[in-house]
Amino acid sequence: MGAIAERDGRKRGYPMKAGANLAANVPAVLDAGYLTVVTDGSGSAASAGVTTFEVDNSTGVSGELMGEVVVGEHKFANNGDITVANVGATSYFVDDSTVSSDSNTSARNAAGTITQVDGDGVWVRLGV
Known about the structure:
Strand content: over 45%
Distance between the termini: 25 Å
Number of helices: 0
Low-confidence stretches: none
Helix content: under 10%
Mean pLDDT: 95
Largest sheet: 5 strands, antiparallel
């Protein structure tokens, strides 16, 4: 038996974590397979991408709603510790708009691979 399907798009849909409320155009992570905010997961969550629309599952159970993300390169503010020497290294979410080269002793979730550093921010490849 061969492959079941094929896709070439950048959008992914994931079930939302209980209590999660994601605004549009913010990065999100997967904590045990459920989409949630980047500060959730205690450093063990996987980078999912940037949300395409708001989804509020703050009163729902895990998996009740689906959230959509776009994977690929996205630009974030630099926490001040990322330089061009960090290109190719992993960056970590400080919050939903800022990345750092420091994992804060594995307390921060990985954002993704740093692909470019500009004067006004850091390009990071997000998504699983």
